[in-house]
Input
Amino acid sequence: MMNSLNSTKDDVVSICAISMLAFMISDFLHEGVGHALTALLTGTQTGVLSSVAWSSAVDSRLVAAGGTVVNLLAGCLFWVALGSRKHATMQTRLFLLLSCAFNLFTGTGYFFFSGVTNFGDWAAVIADVQPHWLWQTLLVVGGIVTYYGAILIVGNGMVRYLGVPLTDHQRFRRLTLVPYFSAVAISAAAGLLNPIGIQLLWQSALPATAGANSGLLWMRYYIRAVPPAQQDLGIIKRSYGWIGTAVACGLLFIFVLGRGITLHR
Output
């Protein structure tokens, strides 16, 4: 009864704000650090960074792979941080878990996406590598295995570190569906302004966001016995600090990064 009552008290506005902030960070890590910074450090002189892509005259396999590598490393770091914050608030716990989720889902999901479509970052990594069909197959298989692993990690964290039992379907859905649609919304809003063109939004940005993070929609069906939290961790209360931070970052994400920033070495 207590879990059912708690599930009606989590503040949706705060969940939405925390979700958007976690997604924006994972997106910037992918495009800004993984692609743009790697490119500039390895010889590229100039390029345009936006929320949906890094575009420059000269790229490499290392630059193409950089986004995924950074996301995977960041996901692991956020997971470690989540496990070590014993006295963190529920808002902080949710932020760390969603940051871990968005980074791991993007990193592992890109393997599968590029393997199936022969498009995107890892299609560029394996371009002209023979036998090409074998490398595509490895991407697909590797993507399935690692994405499933990410599902187990995030689902485990939802139960262990947020204290949401699998039997509380209402609360589990709220803490997964709201983050999913929040990420899609902020991604679309910024992607509409991207300097490359609207086609990139439909071809890459939205499929990457909606597809990679789709695990949030169905992961509860694949989580089995997970040790519950040792204590009642409470609910996610209204936090104007998190909301204000998300609004400020969201405006920069949409109207500055969304429009594109020209970077020089």
About this structure: The chain has one domain: 2-264. Residues 2-264 form one domain. The first strand starts at residue 46 and ends at 49. Confidence is low (pLDDT under 50) at residues 1-7.
